[in-house]
Write a structure and sequence with these properties.
heterodimer, A: mainly beta, seven-stranded mixed beta sheet, four-stranded antiparallel beta sheet, 11 strands, B: mainly beta
Chain lengths: 113, 113
């Protein structure tokens, strides 16, 4: 069983479209994250939810909206996609306080054309 | 907020040699320092971590050292093998409800035969 699963694995879409990425974890963690990894491999946090509550919201455009229906799921919806949104998006989960580090999902490679 | 610097950005070693990757952090409240290995096209995976109450930790060919006074921590890989080739990320956090890992910029390690 995959601990943190993301769908889809690949996403190719045109500029201006709206798309969603889904993430689910079965580790019993109560904190989930979205990270963006750009072409230079930099890993930057976007959002974090703890028990369905948004606790970290870095300077991310309003076009990005996370949703956590329960503590095992964290989805990312992106409106009006731009070329600069092309990246790999990683979901991750941890126990509260990241005391043992993260478990990452396998990533979603988003390509905006 | 926390800022983590990582050096070198690329490192090439011959099989059997040692590799050392160094990181510095800025937030004196940081108390947890994991290291992740990311193979091409894969997710980052935790390989070793260290907490601020410990100066050194070893796991087979991998060791981490932490100097809290200087805010430095390092990853040491001995007897490198071709399968050690990957991008390595250091990270830092102060554990708490709103914790997040701040990652270094990554080191691409190439182990040559």
């Amino acid at each position: 069983d995959t601990a943190v699963s993301q769908t889809p694995k690949y996403l190719v879409t045109q500029m201006g479209n709206d798309k969603s990425i889904k993430c689910e974890q079965n580790l019993g963690h109560d904190t989930m994250y979205w990270y963006k990894q750009d072409s230079k491999k930099f890993l930057k946090i976007m959002f974090s939810y703890n028990n369905k509550e948004l606790i970290i919201n870095e300077t991310v455009p309003n076009r990005f909206s996370p949703k956590s229906p329960d503590k095992a799921h964290l989805n990312l919806h992106i409106n009006s996609l731009e070329l600069g949104d092309s990246a790999v998006y990683f979901c991750a989960s941890s126990r509260t306080g990241a005391v043992d580090g993260y478990t990452f999902g396998s990533g979603t490679r988003l390509t905006v054309v | 907020g926390e800022n983590v610097e990582q050096h070198p950005s690329t490192l090439s070693v011959q099989e059997g040699d040692s590799a050392v990757i160094k990181c510095t952090y800025s937030d004196s409240a940081s108390n947890y320092f994991p290291w992740y290995k990311q193979e091409l096209g894969k997710r980052p995976q935790l390989i070793i971590d260290i907490r601020s109450n410990v100066g050194e930790k070893k796991d087979q060919r991998i060791a981490v050292t932490l100097n809290k006074t200087a805010k430095h921590f390092s990853l040491h890989i001995t007897e490198t093998q071709p399968e050690d080739s990957a991008v390595y990320f250091c990270a830092a956090t102060s554990t708490g409800t709103a914790s997040k890992l701040t990652f270094g910029t990554g080191t691409r390690l190439q182990v040559t035969l």
